[in-house]
Amino acid sequence: MTITFAEVMDKEPAAIWLLGWGIGLGLVAWLAIRWNRWLSILFAPLAILALLGLTSEIRDSYVGPAILHEAGYSYVASGWLAGVLPLIGCLAGWFSNVKRKGGENKSGASGKTRTGHITSLTEGPKRDVEVRISSKELFSEISDPPGAIQTTDVTGYEIVAKGDPNTYSFRLYVRLVTGSRVLFYGGVTQIDRALLLDEFEAALPNLPRTRIKA
């Protein structure tokens, strides 16, 4: 019987190989679904197939006990862990996507973003907050969520304006390849809006622009 067990393990992949496959598939599923939750339609069935495939020998009524006898509980645990990692990746990606989308929607509608103001027009517009617009990177001190944006991640931008000349205000949103958007800047004058759009068009002439009147 010992010889039979040894022959069984000779045909089984190493535990590190199983874990490598499980971790790799789990990471791919997490990244994909985090980017677009609807990719779970593709990755969830693949994760189930991976679970069945990576644990098929362990679950076998004859081979399973032989593996346990020859390789021990650590190998069996490694096999099951490798099998469930892709499913964990799918779930983690889904919740990460939902959390990120919810945070973006909340921040975009919070109304607590600071407003920028033009302070000088000498040698180009100067504002009381830092704003950098170039062909490689976009940055606004009052963006929500905060942080620099690589222009390779940008698919377009839109201006939302409301009010009459006495109560005018606007917001500029940047749309990303993930389908989300960033509240890049808010202002209170039409001059500020026009100058900001000029800067965007000069740096990113091929990006589509949308104007919305609230």
Describe this structure in words.
With 214 residues, the chain is α+β, with helices and mostly antiparallel strands. The chain has two domains: 2-109, no CATH class; 118-213, Pleckstrin-homology domain (PH domain)/Phosphotyrosine-binding domain (PTB) (PH-domain like, Roll). The chain has seven helices and nine strands, in the order H-H-H-H-H-H-E-E-E-E-E-E-E-E-H-E. It has helices at 2-10, 15-35, 40-54, 56-59, 63-71, 73-109, 190-203; strands spanning 118-120, 126-127, 131-133, 137-140, 149-150, 154-162, 169-176, 181-187, 209-213. The strands form three sheets. The protein has a four-stranded mixed sheet. It has a three-stranded antiparallel sheet with strand order 3-4-5. Helix 1 packs across helix 5 (63-71), helix 3 packs antiparallel against helix 6 (73-109) and helix 5 (63-71) packs across helix 6.
Q: In oligomeric terms, what are we looking at?
A: single chain
| Biggest beta sheet attributes | 4 strands, mixed
Question: In percent terms, what proportion of residues is strand?
Answer: 15-25%
Number of helices: 7
Q: Mean pLDDT, rounded to whole units?
A: 84
Low-pLDDT stretches: 1-6, 104-111
Please report the total strand number as a whole number.
9
Compact description:
This protein has helices spanning 2-10, 15-35, 40-54, 56-59, 63-71, 73-109, 190-203, and strands spanning 118-120, 126-127, 131-133, 137-140, 149-150, 154-162, 169-176, 181-187, 209-213.
